[in-house]
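Renewal narrative, Specific Aim 1. Our central claim is that a sequence can be written position by position from structural information alone. The example that follows is taken directly from our test logs and has not been curated for this report. It begins with the structure tokens describing the chain, in the order in which they were read.
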């Protein structure tokens, strides 16, 4: 069976069916770039790497310069856990953005409109980096009250790892301050522990850096690659009330100064799996959960994470 058909079978069998009265979009959708043969893109000689994204803009923020540097040499696949409805524009401060993007007041925007727009923006970002394919699991949430979605996501990710056998995957690093990002880390960790796949796992940063006292795989980038990251992030116009591109560039400069004392350098630091995440193979779900929780120094936030894994 071809890689594309295998992926479609996994999505059809493991992704929870849509419940129209509750769910905003069709689940388990796959985007394939125009003119791309997915079997050649993910089954050829190029190294295969999967980027797991809690939200539609996390790949560009998390590893944008890496994508800019290697998109032509590697076969990337993006997997989006949620449909982006959590970013619904409601506040008065976003009125200008709502009028510009949707032609209506913030309180007139319906969730379905935002979900569709965020998916379109993700597809444009994939086109920008020539990513051959992306998978939209399409869940409204993976947090508390969505245990079935988390379980389905774990099974789906494990099967994708077994089927595609990527050399490397990127997941949110467990020190990230965003709760949904930590839940996605938990999902991917449980899937990696279950899968027969044994590739490399690296944790990327979106909301907050990796601490400097843990081992990382560091990569340095020229300014041009960071400019491409900025341009790709800007494609996610619904999120542009905050300048994430400039914030990430500042974080990269800080990382370069802190690690190699080069004020003119730009560095990305990726957390290595065999450190704080432990060696995942055969680890129980509780082990994965507790390992991530140990990275959360705020007790209230740690308890919130544990509760969202269990319920």
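The sequence written for that structure reads:
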């Amino acid at each position: 069976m071809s890689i594309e058909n295998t992926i479609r079978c996994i999505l059809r069998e493991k992704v929870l069916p849509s419940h129209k009265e509750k769910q905003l979009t069709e689940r388990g959708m796959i985007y394939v770039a125009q003119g791309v043969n997915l079997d050649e893109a993910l089954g050829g000689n190029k190294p295969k790497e999967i980027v797991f994204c809690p939200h539609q803009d996390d790949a560009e923020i998390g590893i944008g310069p890496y994508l800019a540097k290697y998109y032509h040499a590697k076969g990337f696949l993006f997997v989006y856990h949620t449909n982006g409805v959590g970013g619904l524009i409601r506040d008065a401060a976003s009125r200008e953005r709502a009028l510009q993007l949707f032609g209506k007041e913030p309180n007139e925007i319906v969730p379905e409109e935002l979900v569709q727009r965020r998916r379109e923006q993700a597809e444009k970002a994939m086109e920008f980096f020539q990513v051959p394919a992306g998978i939209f699991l399409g869940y409204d949430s993976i947090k508390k009250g969505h245990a079935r979605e988390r379980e389905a996501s774990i099974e789906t990710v494990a099967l994708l790892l077994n089927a595609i056998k990527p050399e490397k995957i990127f997941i949110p690093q467990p020190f990230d301050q965003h709760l949904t990002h930590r839940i996605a880390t938990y999902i991917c960790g449980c899937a990696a522990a279950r899968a027969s796949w044994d590739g490399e796992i690296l944790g990327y940063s979106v909301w907050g850096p990796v601490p400097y006292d843990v081992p990382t795989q560091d990569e340095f980038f020229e300014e041009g690659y960071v400019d491409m990251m900025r341009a790709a992030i800007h494609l996610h116009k619904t999120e542009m009330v905050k300048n994430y591109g400039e914030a990430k560039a500042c974080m990269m400069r800080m990382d370069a100064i802190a690690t190699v004392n080069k004020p003119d350098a730009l560095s990305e630091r990726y957390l290595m799996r065999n450190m704080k995440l432990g060696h995942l193979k055969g680890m129980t779900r509780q082990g994965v959960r507790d390992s991530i929780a140990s990275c959360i120094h705020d007790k209230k936030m740690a308890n919130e994470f544990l509760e969202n894994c269990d319920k």
